[in-house]
Each structure stands twice: as C-alpha cells, then as structure tokens.
Amino acid sequence: MRMFTALIISLIACSHANASDFRWTTGFTMGTVEAIIRNENDSSVNIYCPSGQIDTTPGMFIEVSKVRPKSHEEIAVQVIVDGKNYPFYLDEIQFKASGRARFQSLYSLIDALASARDASFIVEFPKFGMAERFSLLDAKKALASAREFLESCGS
Fold it and tell me: What is the dihedral of CA 139, 141, 143, 144, to 10 degrees?
C-alpha cells in the first residue's frame, strides 16, 4: 500500500511539473500564423501575422488578468528583453503594426525575443505598477526571425 501511495504522489508531482513548463508555441488558423506564450498566471503574449486575411497588418495581443482596460483605452507597456526596453501602446490589449514605425517596433521586438540570451522577458504596465514575466523557451523555434515571421504580412 505504501508503494502504491508513493507511486500516486510521484505521478501527481510529475504532472504538475509538466504543467509549469511554459514555452512558446505556434499555430496557424484561418490564414493567420501566431506565436504565443502563456505564464503561470494565465497571462499571454500573442504575436500574429494575418497573411491570409484582407488586412495583413501584423500585431500583438497582451492579455493580463490584473489589467482590465476600458473600451479603446490606450495602455502603455514596456517589454524588456535582455535588459533592453521595447515600448508599445496597446489599444486595450492589442498593438497593430500599421505604418512603418510601428512595423519596425514589432520587427525589433521579434528579433530580440528570437535571439534573447536570458531565460525570460518581462512585460511592464507602468500605469498599473505591475509586471508579468514570460519564458523565452522555444522563442527562437516559434518566431525564427522577424524577417521570416513577418515575410507575408503588410506594413
């Protein structure tokens, strides 16, 4: 009976360890490729390229349970990768890379995430005085490089 109990406890411990293995994943749905990371707080960063859509403007969604923006509220965020700051303004939870400067900002962030040396990056919300940490595990695999990830998106 002790052996059975020990086996059950070790199986539970192993399954919990797998659940905390947060890494970048990619997906393709309805003409849009996405690279997504979630953390232990169920917050997420989703970088997307809608190449198969009428509007091919790439962008990013950042969802954090502790930040509840109002409709069309502009939210300033700072993404910190390897100690370098990448500032963005979200419309609620979305950043659209429309125009040359915004496209270049997203391009730079993707390259930084794909080539990062640190194990994680941070998304800060200065207005709310809080930050979320995300893993960089498999970021290179999911994003490759900005040139590759965004090659079929417009600016």
Answer: 120
CB 115 within 8 A of CB 140: yes
Give dist(CA 87, CA 92) in Å, integer.
Answer: 15
Q: Of all residues in the chain, what percent are helix, strand and coil, respectively (each to 5)?
A: 30, 35, 35
The 10s digit of each residue's pLDDT in 103-121 is 999 999 999 999 999 999 9
Q: How many helices (H) and strands (E) does the chain have?
A: 4, 9
Q: How many C-beta atoms surround the C-beta of residue 94 within 10 A?
A: 14
**CA-CA distance, 60 to 93, in Å (whole number)?**
8
- Three-state secondary structure call for residue 33: strand
Task: Give the domain ranges of the chain.
Answer: 23-149
Tell me what the mean pLDDT of segment 90-114 comes to: 96
> How far is Cα 45 from Cα 8, in angstroms, rounded to an integer?
35
Q: What is the pLDDT of residues 22-71, one digit of tens each?
A: 899 999 888 899 999 999 999 999 999 998 888 899 999 999 988 888 88
pTM over 0.70: yes
Q: CB of 135 within 8 A of CB of 23?
A: yes
